[in-house]
């Protein structure tokens, strides 16, 4: 699927990321470990979604640069830690050796820690944003990434391993609203914090982002069943091997596909209810992208 706007924004994000981690005076190679994972590829869907939402809200999308970079740093740190032997124990990510396989476990942990803190540093030092907006963004990102958001969701997910279908659907959705959905929600709502649209628009975009988060996770669960390992850049079947609760394990493949369809329709419905002045074509494309992605 091609979308020139998304391709261009992805290119901009990649260029900004390349210059976001300068060498320090401490004479370590920690920055190399940070950059290794940060520049390891990926679709940059979260930062791009943030910029697209700002653009849709008729705001200069460049005002979202710092939030977009911070968001990608938080996401990257989470992947570094997820791949560690104590958690998912993965050797490859996006077709490349995982960070701990290249730099060792302790340095991978510290690289993740450094990326997390760098995310907030970038936002607070953005001279193009008002101070009250920076406070909103930092509050939102800390909530999305912390024990009530992504980290809390990952904790629930780890605790659920080995329980298989004993975890009910409501609990599973609670896990993924936090683990996967929190950062996708931040992408959309950070744009709302910057653009400050009317309340009804903010509410519809929040609902849209929540449906996107569940769509993304359901598709992940399905790809673990039938995905192409070459395109995924990692092995499939790990959910079954680890006896993880997934939409597929609870609902079956057909049931998971139906759940994906339901959230897809709801995401479209949220955009359809926005005032006509907003061009939602790129946000609709994100829905299609989530539905049809192969990695």
Automatic annotation (TrEMBL):
Pfam families: polyprenyl_synt. This is Polyprenyl synthetase family protein. Belongs to the FPP/GGPP synthase family. InterPro entries: Isoprenoid_synthase_dom_sf (IPR008949), Polyprenyl_synt (IPR000092), Polyprenyl_synt_CS (IPR033749), Prenyl_diphosphate_synthase (IPR053378). Gene3D superfamilies: Farnesyl Diphosphate Synthase. Its cofactor is Mg(2+). NCBIfam families: FPPsyn.
């Amino acid at each position: 699927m091609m979308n020139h706007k998304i391709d261009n924004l992805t290119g901009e994000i990649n260029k900004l990321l390349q210059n976001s981690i300068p060498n320090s005076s401490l004479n370590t190679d920690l920055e190399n470990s940070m950059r290794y994972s940060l520049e390891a590829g990926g679709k940059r869907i979260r930062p791009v979604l943030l910029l697209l939402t700002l653009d849709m809200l008729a705001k200069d999308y460049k005002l979202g640069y710092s939030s977009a970079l911070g968001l990608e740093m938080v996401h990257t740190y989470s992947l570094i830690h997820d791949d560690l032997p104590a958690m998912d124990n993965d050797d490859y990510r996006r077709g490349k050796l995982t960070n701990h396989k290249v730099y060792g476990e302790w340095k991978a942990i510290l690289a993740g820690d450094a990326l997390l803190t760098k995310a907030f540093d970038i936002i607070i030092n953005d001279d193009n944003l008002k101070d009250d907006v920076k406070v909103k963004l930092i509050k939102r990102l800390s909530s999305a990434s912390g024990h009530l958001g992504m980290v809390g969701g990952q904790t629930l997910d780890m605790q659920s391993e080995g329980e298989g279908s004993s975890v009910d659907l409501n609990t599973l959705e609670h896990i993924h609203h936090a683990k996967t959905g929190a950062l996708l929600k931040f992408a959309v709502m950070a744009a709302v914090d910057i653009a400050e649209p009317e309340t009804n628009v903010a509410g519809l975009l929040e609902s849209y982002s929540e449906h996107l988060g569940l769509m993304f996770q359901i598709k992940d669960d399905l790809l673990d069943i039938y995905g192409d390992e070459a395109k995924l850049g990692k092995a499939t079947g790990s959910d079954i091997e680890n006896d993880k609760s997934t939409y597929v394990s609870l609902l079956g493949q057909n049931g998971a596909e139906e759940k994906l369809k339901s959230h897809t329709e709801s995401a479209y419905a949220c955009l359809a209810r926005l005032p006509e002045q907003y061009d939602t074509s790129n946000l609709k494309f994100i829905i299609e992208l989530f539905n049809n992605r192969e990695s």
